[in-house]
Hints:
The protein has helices at residues 22-27, 51-66, 71-84, and strands at residues 34-39, 42-47, 85-88, 91-94. The model is unreliable at 87-91 (pLDDT under 50). Helix 2 (51-66) packs across helix 3 (71-84). The strands form 2 sheets. The protein has a two-stranded antiparallel ribbon with strand order 1-2. A two-stranded antiparallel ribbon has the order 3-4. By secondary structure, the protein is α+β, with helices and mostly antiparallel strands. It contains 3 helices and 4 strands; from the N terminus they run H-E-E-H-H-E-E. Helix content is 34%, strand content 19%. A hairpin with a 2-residue loop joins strand 1 (34-39) and strand 2 (42-47).
Amino acid sequence: MGYDAQSKKVKISTEREIKIPEEFYEEFSLIDEVQISKVNGALIITPIIDPVFEKYKTLIMEQLTKAGYTGQELTDKFNELRKQVQVNDGFTLFMNVKPDFKKQE
Length: 105
């Protein structure tokens, strides 16, 4: 049994910051935090998955697709909406999100 591995060489800034390649950033729907671990001499960067958002991810994607979003525009809108999902005392708040996700022409 194999595994799918991809790697990219990235620079480390003088402030110890790294830039995650765009395709990785988008594929994993990253926003502002990741978990970084040291395992057997390797650094592992793992997405932090919001369990509340995970419940609504499919619904949001279906609504955006139904509204006519495709390709990069779909990815951008999805990430924009993801940033608006907030968890507060167990309640999910969608800030400034209309339920029909009408595409602005």
